[in-house]
């Protein structure tokens, strides 16, 4: 059975809630990613920040990214998936919550990877990709 661990790209990193958006943006650039999970004081995920969040909710709003903490953009309940979850569960989680990036955690609740649309496109059948697209974008 194909699992979330088989779909994900490894090496995902997170930022702490008190890091500035300027630092988060640099990290995204250096890692070549468009989203990073955010951890709270308890070292648990409290959200995800995307490059779009930084542009729309900070820069376009006239705010200084060097003065805005990552925690200010974390909204809602963070979504994640267990590394041993099957493909159907991964797709269901992403479709149900209409998300395009999904953090993957191991049994110790440590971040071990991320699943993005690109990962799905690289590893799933055309039928599975069509199902994903219909579920996330057709609403």
Automatic annotation (TrEMBL):
> Does the record bear Repressor in its keywords?
no
Q: Which UniProt keywords apply?
A: CBS domain
Kindly give the InterPro entries that the UniProt entry links to this protein. CBS_dom, CBS_dom_sf, Diverse_CBS-Domain
**Annotated CBS domain residues:** 8-66, 73-131
Q: Which branch of life, at top level?
A: Bacteria
Q: Does the keyword Iron-sulfur apply?
A: no
Give one Pfam hit by family name.
CBS
Q: What is the protein name stated in its UniProt record?
A: CBS domain-containing protein
Which species is listed as the source?
Answer: Nocardiopsis mangrovi
Q: Taxonomic lineage of this organism?
A: Bacteria, Bacillati, Actinomycetota, Actinomycetes, Streptosporangiales
């Amino acid at each position: 059975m194909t699992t979330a661990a088989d779909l994900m790209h490894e090496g995902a990193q997170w930022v702490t809630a008190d890091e500035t958006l300027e630092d988060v943006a640099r990290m995204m650039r250096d890692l070549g990613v468009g989203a990073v999970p955010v951890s709270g004081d308890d070292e648990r995920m409290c959200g995800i920040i995307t490059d779009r969040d930084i542009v729309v909710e900070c820069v376009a709003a006239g705010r200084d990214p060097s003065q805005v903490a990552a925690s200010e953009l974390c909204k809602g309940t963070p979504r994640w998936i267990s590394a041993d979850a099957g493909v159907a569960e991964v797709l269901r989680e992403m479709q149900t919550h209409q998300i395009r990036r999904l953090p993957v955690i191991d049994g110790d609740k440590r971040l071990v990877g991320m699943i993005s649309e690109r990962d799905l496109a690289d590893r799933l059948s055309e039928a599975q990709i069509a199902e994903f697209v219909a579920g996330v974008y057709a609403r």
